[in-house]
Amino acid sequence: MAAVGPPQQQVRMAHQQVWAALEVALRVPCLYIIDAIFNSYYDSSQSRFCIGLQIFLRLLGIFVSSIVLILSQRSLFKFYMYSSAFLLAATSVLVNYYASLHIDFYGAYNTSAFGIELLPRKGPSLWMALIVLQLTLGIGYITLLQIHSIYSQLIILDLLVPVIGLITELPLHIRETLVFTSSLILTLNTVLVLVVKLKWFYYSTRYVYLLVRHMYRIYGLQLLMEDTWKRIRFPDILRVFWLTRITAQATVLMYILRMANETDSFFISWDDFWDLVCNLIISGCDSTLTVLGMSAVISSIAHYLGLGILAFIGSTEEDDRRLGFVAPVLFFILALQTGLSGLRPEERLIRLSRNMCLLLTAVLHFIHGMTDPVLMSLSASHVSSFRRHFPVLFVSACLFILPVLLSYVLWHHYALNTWLFAVTAFCVELCLKVIVSLTVYTLFMIDGYYNVLWEKLDDYVYYVRSTGNIIEFIFGVVMFGNGAYTMMFESGSKIRACMMCLHAYFNIYLQAKNGWKTFMNRRTAVKKINSLPEIKGSRLQEIDDVCAICYHEFTTSARITPCNHYFHALCLRKWLYIQDTCPMCHQKVYIEDDIKDNSNVSNNNGFIAPNENPEEAIREAAAESDRELNEDDSTDCDDDVQRERNGVIQQHTGPAAEEFINDDTD
Ligand SMILES: [Zn+2]
Ligand SMILES: [Zn+2]
């Protein structure tokens, strides 16, 4: 077999896309039916039987539509084929019936309700039209039901019999009989086809049922739902549903407006346009289903916005493509939380615009999350091309200006409430985050510009970042308080309570935990470094070596590992954040467990008792390190003692001293 060339591949791709589009288009009507059922109201003044029947019909409608919605592609097409075949059959029978019994052939005019002459007036042309129509319907019917034998020609003939009766001008009662017989035969045939297919229907239903049960047992409900969601392209269906619904409403409203204004021009006044848009938006979120549709549309917008920004700032991070997922989920949760679809129309518009403001700030936060790593990598890699830096800086500036503008406008127009407070807090938080990012960026740029090892840099960056994190944490707590206030005094829905729990977990607990972890990591790294002997001054010149991590010379001081390798304290510390071994020879630089184990048994090994004076211990340790430096052939045992002592010193001097030592040595 020859290899599939690119043009063929393209054709196949296009083919697949067309089928996918058709599939989506065929599923959309189900959503319309479900939406209509949910939106229709029934009067409770009727008898109990009527109400019961109505509820039953509604449930049946929803059930059938849902089933059709999740059918497989093949079954979906089959379903539509049979339905349209039955529709064609019904149309054909109706046309025959009407033509045979109700059209007055020799009447002068046959005008339709709209004043348009639909049917040809003269006898022969009417017959021709009828024959063509019946032929089309018949061919459509047999094609859709896939009847291939001689039998199919009989069906077409059957459809044409009443027309023949009409042409030959048979008496009325015979024409009636003909129409009746023809439609009876057609009905019988349809029933026959159904009965033949019943077996297939039963087996395929059973197969699908077993398949679903099997998948449910193996993968669980969540995966099953995810799979269905993707298979039927539910977001696409929702988008098409929402957009077509809005378009239809817009068309109707435009028509009404033009009727009311009695103008023929396509342009409407600005006020009317604004009213129209407001009305469309209000009706665009009047039920949970339409809110879902709106979320799907927002998802598309957010997805392309995210991609655009990523391309603009030149980032290739895969994780950052999630904006198209995060934004709609947030929108939907906000809508649920505020009970958007259940509000009165005028309140709904206000609530929606408030939700949109919150969503906008959240999206800006997300965009900041995208720009921050790019900013850091640019500043750290010392790329000095203006064209690389400008887009990121520009986006950062926008991220600073937009929240300021937004809060200014909102404060100008609204009085303070919990919503405005939340939006403002988000805006301020974003501004602070941008400032932190830009400060760190500036620090790195300065470092790159001067081209000398700046040992304090890491500390400064750490301080700036942790200040930012602490402020963020405080904002998290404040927002939690705001949410609690809203819940107690404004609206206390269950969804809001859930969201509060999530907020408490992700924005408060996890952040505090991460911050604490970073702090502890840093502390232990500093502790480990300080346990290593330091060389300064003239001894440094004697070594005449470079740091094996950064290949820079030792200007002020160097740390020496137990395996006799020299490094900058700063370089080694950064290394120790990642792993515990020497970068050169992979021996353990510092073994905490050893100290814990040995501390119980090493009294005979020169162990310093806990209550002993720490200063003395430090002096002793210094002496030890000097000795070690002088005699490079120190034994492993000495090393152990050395390490262990330093560890002990560290343990007893405590964090405050460590901080002091840290400041002193760096
Ligand atoms: Zn170094
Ligand atoms: Zn080493």
UniProtKB/TrEMBL annotation:
Domain RING-type residue range list: 547-586
Region Disordered, residue ranges: 620-666
Acidic residues: compositionally biased ranges: 629-639
InterPro entries given in the database record: HRD1_E3_ubiq-ligases (IPR050731), TRC8_N_dom (IPR025754), Znf_RING (IPR001841), Znf_RING-CH (IPR011016), Znf_RING/FYVE/PHD (IPR013083)
Recorded topology in the membrane: Multi-pass membrane protein
GO MF term (any one): ubiquitin protein ligase activity
Single biological process term from Gene Ontology: proteasome-mediated ubiquitin-dependent protein catabolic process
Highest taxon of the lineage: Eukaryota
Pfam entry (one): TRC8_N
SUPFAM superfamilies in UniProt: RING/U-box (SSF57850)
A single GO cellular-component term on record: Derlin-1 retrotranslocation complex
UniProtKB keywords: Endoplasmic reticulum, Membrane, Metal-binding, Transmembrane, Transmembrane helix, Zinc, Zinc-finger
Compartments reported by the entry: Endoplasmic reticulum membrane
Protein name, entry field: E3 ubiquitin-protein ligase RNF139
Protein's organism: Panthera pardus (Leopard)
